[in-house]
């Protein structure tokens, strides 16, 4: 690689100060370190968030599930509170990438990076979760802004994510075997107020599907999902699958998710 300075602050305040001075936050490093090795990213200073105890942990608070930004995927996947209160999120975390990725990757790092094929953004968007930062609280619908883009400011760090608990929820995905990223992932969450459906892997970032939400809000059945036409015009097309194939997958995975949710 190349020369850079390394800082490991013990407090959030120190980390924010370093980030504000131009330091690059390092969470799990699953994307950043690989980019640095390929010389696609060249930060002059790394700010390792791994020593900040207040950024890790899982707890229930006021009927919501709160997960610290530096909580590893593996921790979320095996946590008893997550399994009891929000099993779909536990399953998602337990099936991200491979064992090595789950041991190091963090929820905050995944959301801040906002890879268009990442799993966590679909859970956050489908549940209307709140991203808590060092400055403010950001609603999921406002947080994700396209390809690797979020509402975060340069000196703003994610500290936690607050998930409202759905009545029923399931995450279904078809992985691309070489990368273990989803070719398409569909997260369906049902609340008393309606149904939210988030899609990852298919477009220029995670997005909600209004057609599926409307149909499933009226009739929460696989048949209702099957009746929704999925427009392929804005979906990705690459060597792994055409836009039409991804559109087909969205419909199939949505049907599977609803079928599992209703048992």
**Which value, in Å, is the CA radius of gyration?**
18 Å
The name of the CATH topology of the largest domain is Uridine Diphospho-n-acetylenolpyruvylglucosamine Reductase, domain 3
Q: Estimate the strand proportion.
A: 15-25%
User: What CATH architecture of the largest domain would you give?
Assistant: 2-Layer Sandwich
- Record the strand order, biggest sheet: 4-5-8-6-7
Pairing-aware structural class of the strands and helices? alpha+beta
DSSP E strands, number: 12
How many structural domains are formed by the residues? Answer: 2
Order of helices and strands: EHEHEEEHHHHHHEEHEEEEEHHH
Largest sheet: 5 strands, antiparallel
* Spans where pLDDT lies below 50 across 5 or more residues: none
- The level 1 CATH classification of the largest domain is Alpha Beta
Q: How far do the termini sit from each other?
A: 51 Å
User: Portion of residues in helices?
Assistant: 25-40%
Shape from CA axes?
globular
Please provide a written account of the structure.
The structure is a single chain. 45% of the residues are buried. Helices cover 36% and strands 23% of the residues. A 5-stranded antiparallel beta sheet has the order 4-5-8-6-7. It has 263 residues and is α+β, with helices and mostly antiparallel strands. Strand 10 and strand 11 form a beta hairpin.
Feature tags:
36% helix, 263 residues, Enolase-like, domain 1, alpha+beta, globular, Uridine Diphospho-n-acetylenolpyruvylglucosamine Reductase, domain 3, 2 domains, four-stranded antiparallel β-sheet
């Amino acid at each position: 690689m190349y020369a850079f300075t390394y800082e490991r602050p013990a407090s959030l305040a120190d980390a924010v100060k370093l980030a504000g001075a131009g330091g690059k936050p390092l969470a799990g490093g699953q994307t950043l370190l690989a980019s640095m090795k390929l010389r696609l990213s060249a930060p002059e200073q790394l700010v390792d968030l791994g020593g900040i105890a207040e950024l890790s942990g899982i707890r229930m608070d006021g009927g919501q599930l709160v997960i610290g930004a530096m909580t590893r995927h593996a921790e979320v996947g095996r946590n008893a509170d997550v399994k009891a209160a929000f099993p779909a999120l536990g399953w998602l975390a337990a099936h991200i990438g491979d064992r090595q990725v789950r041991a190091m990757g963090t929820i905050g790092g995944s959301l801040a990076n906002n890879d268009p094929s990442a799993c966590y953004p679909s859970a956050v968007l489908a549940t209307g979760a709140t991203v808590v930062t060092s400055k403010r609280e950001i609603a999921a619908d406002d947080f994700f802004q396209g390809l690797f883009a979020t509402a975060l400011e340069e000196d703003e760090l994610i500290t936690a994510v607050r998930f409202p608990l759905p009545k029923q929820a399931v995450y279904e995905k078809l992985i691309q075997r070489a990368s273990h990223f989803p070719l398409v992932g569909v997260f369906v969450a049902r609340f008393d107020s309606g149904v939210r459906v988030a899609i990852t892997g298919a477009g220029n970032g995670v997005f909600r599907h209004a057609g599926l939400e409307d149909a499933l809000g009226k009739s929460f059945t696989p048949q209702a999902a099957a009746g929704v036409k999925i427009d392929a015009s804005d979906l990705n097309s690459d060597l792994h699958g055409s836009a039409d194939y991804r559109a087909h997958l969205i419909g199939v995975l949505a049907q599977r998710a609803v079928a599992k949710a209703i048992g």
